[in-house]
Structures are given as structure tokens and as C-alpha cells.
Amino acid sequence: LHKTALPLPVADNFDRDHLRLVMDKLTKQAVEMAAVNSRLDALLEASLRITSETEPGRLLDEFCKSARHLVSAKFGLVGIAEENGDHASVAGLSPEAYPGLKDISRMHAVMAGLLSGQKPVRARNTSADPGNFGFPKNFPGFGSLLAAPIVSPKHNYGWLCLFHRLGAVEFTE
User: Fold this and answer.
1) Given CA atoms 14, 16, 18, 20 in this order, what sign does their dihedral have?
2) pTM score, two decimals?
């Protein structure tokens, strides 16, 4: 005699499917929490490095590098307009390889155009041509950008721009 498996009662199938669904949701939430925790750790580490820095050039470098790492950008630029001279920092690229990065007055002009509304800007650049956004021809190509003004209610200090979101097509909100 052959024993045939009897179909499980509907309640058993429902319980198993429900349990699988709950486990999948919990796993997804655990992965998301681990990612958030990792970003918070990076933010804490960056804030400790930045608050302990006293030299303005290195402070700007740390700020730019930290911003690039926190949002997973290929490279970033930060520019500060000051009465006694402009300052800029690049993270993720060698300024020697891209001489246009050293032209801070040109970068300020490009950013002024991008940030004319004094609000952050996210954009895709499907052709990766930097000229689409007013950057010089020798500027490195990028597929997306995230630009933000650095402002207080009474003063515009400068800007931060991150380029080419790693692991995604564009920067998200």
C-alpha cells in the first residue's frame, strides 16, 4: 500500500505563509536598521573629526569628504565665499587630474546658477556631460548631482555639491 500525503489543512498553509511574510518583513527592517545605524556611526565619526579640527582648509576637506561618504557620492566639492578670499575643497578626485576644479570663481558662478532658488537641487545627467550644467569641459563626467546652499537666515556662506551617486542612478530625497 502506498501512503499518499494528505493536503495540509488551509489553516496550516495560512500560518506557514503568514510566518514567512512576517519573517521577510522583519529581515528587511533589520537590514534597513543596520544601514541607518552605519550612517549614524559615520555621522558621529565625522562630527568628531570636524569638531576637533581647527585649521580652516582641513576642516573644509573633512566636511567635503564626510558629506561624500555619508551619501555615497563618487566625488564632491564644497565652496565657501569669504570677504578675505574664496576657499574650496574637493573630495574623491585629484585636483591635479582636473585643473578646472581649482577655478573656484568659476565653480561659484556655476553653483550660483544651480542654486538660484537657495534650495537644494537634485538632478540626473543622462549623457554624463558636465557642460549640461555649466561646468567646464575638463570637468569630470557625472550621472547625477546633489547641490545644496550653505546658508543661515542672514548670510550665504557657500555651497556643497556631490556628484555621481554610487549604487543608484540618482540621489533621492
Assistant:
1) negative
2) 0.69
Q: All 3 cell numbers of residue 7?
A: 493536503
Tell me: the pLDDT tens digits for 30-66?
888 877 777 667 666 766 666 666 777 777 788 888 8
Reading the block at residue 2, the C-alpha cell is: 502506498
Task: List the grid coordinates of 49.
Answer: 573629526
Side chain identity at residue 43, one-letter code: L
Given a contact cutoff of 8 angstroms between Cβ atoms, the answer to whether 159 and 115 are in contact is: yes
| 97 DSSP assignment | T
DSSP category for residue 7: P
What is the distance between the alpha carbons of residues 113 and 4, in angstroms, rounded to a whole number? 74
Distance CA(135)–CA(100), nearest Å, equals 9
Distance of alpha carbon 55 from alpha carbon 47, whole angstroms:
15
Measured in whole angstroms, the distance separating CA 44 from the mean position of its chain's CA atoms is 16
